[in-house]
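Researcher: Can you fold this with zinc ion in place?
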Amino acid sequence: MGYAPLRCPRCGEITLWKKSDSSYKGFSVGKAIVGSSIFGPLGASAGALGKRKSRYRCGKCGYSEEFDG
Ligand SMILES: [Zn+2]
């Protein structure tokens, strides 16, 4: 895992390989829930405020993945 590539890792599409902000919220909430179940309240805040991730999605082949930043 690292920063997002400039093109789809699966099919090489550039123009349709875009950041998808719609799923970012769900990811944060899920992370907070996982954090709280393992580390308690402290883990919940760490999960919500921790490392930022961005989901990218390819409009051509449908591939999606989360990257740092
Ligand atoms: Zn693709």
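Model: Folded with zinc ion in place. The chain has a mean pLDDT of 77.
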